[in-house]
Specification:
single chain, six-stranded parallel beta sheet, two-stranded antiparallel ribbon, alpha/beta, 2 domains, Rossmann fold
């Protein structure tokens, strides 16, 4: 799979794909349905299979002060897409130029002129263009105008009728339900980070663990470490929330440093978590 950053001045081999359009954060089962439609079109017309995503996520432009929310780092996303047979992964810069394009301009300048797409697969609820005025119906109209095929994926839901979405994955993780998140994703949720030496308490209990130092992706796209409580000893506290980040009253693991009482106190703030 080739990762292509940008949509201007592409070589011929990087144009003419049947593409799935979206953000695809998490590459969950709903996303996989859109990609499957693009793959079907690619097979029928003999074109490479492509996926379009945006960096940074549009939410980071329109809601820069929103809390961290990304489910995947770019490398994780690329590997997940490659496993689905994607040939071309277009990472388009979502900058002021992109944000200012009308839905028709996006279809003409980016999809037709820039990428030369042969087919576009979209989800049933997609919106695109300035003001989010574009829809599956308008994409079909632009396909006719500019000569590319369009297919629309129906909603994919669980047995209860709940639609699969990245938001549902985030909610499940916040609620401490990794099994529910995995059911939406179609695989276990994973984080990446550097394994560091810890206090080696797990091995004393017969359950050695790997301590992964992770950072959150903030809404501004920068990495930041999650906050920890102040320790009465004056050092960085070693306590960590037991119940995750969502309840505003999260009990903390004991710091085990003499003089620190976090084992019994309750946090009144919501620590940031890598979701």
């Amino acid at each position: 799979m080739r990762v292509i950053k940008g949509w201007k001045g592409l070589m011929a081999r990087d144009r003419g794909a049947a593409i799935a359009l979206g953000n695809f954060d998490g590459v969950h089962r709903g996303h996989q349905q859109v990609i499957a439609l693009a793959a079907k079109a690619a097979h029928e017309i003999g074109a490479p299979l492509g996926v379009i995503s945006f960096d940074p996520h549009p939410r980071q432009i329109f809601a820069p002060n929103a809390p961290a929310f990304r489910l995947m780092r770019p490398g994780q996303q690329a590997r997940a897409l490659e496993a689905l047979g994607v040939d071309l992964f277009y990472v388009l810069p979502f900058d002021q130029e992109m944000a200012s394009l009308t839905d028709r301009d996006f279809a003409q300048q980016v999809l037709h002129d820039g990428l030369g797409v042969a087919h576009v697969a979209v989800g049933f609820d997609i919106s695109f263009g300035k003001g989010r005025t574009g829809s599956p119906a308008t994409m079909k109209d632009y396909g006719q105008d500019f000569g590319f095929g369009v297919s629309v994926a129906a909603a994919v839901a669980d047995d209860s009728g709940e639609k699969y979405s990245s938001t549902a994955v985030r909610d499940a993780l916040r609620d401490g339900q990794p099994e529910a998140a995995a059911a939406i994703l179609g695989r276990p949720f994973a984080i990446e980070g550097v394994v560091q030496r810890g206090r080696q308490l797990g091995r004393e209990l017969g359950f050695p663990t790997a301590n992964v130092q992770w950072t959150t992706m903030s809404s501004r796209g920068s990495a930041s470490t999650p906050p920890v409580p102040a320790c009465p000893t004056g050092a960085r506290c070693r306590a960590w929330p037991i119940s995750g980040s969502i309840p505003r009253s999260a009990k903390w693991r004991p710091c085990l440093r003499s003089g620190c009482s976090t084992s019994t106190r309750t946090s009144t703030t919501r620590p940031s978590r890598p979701i």
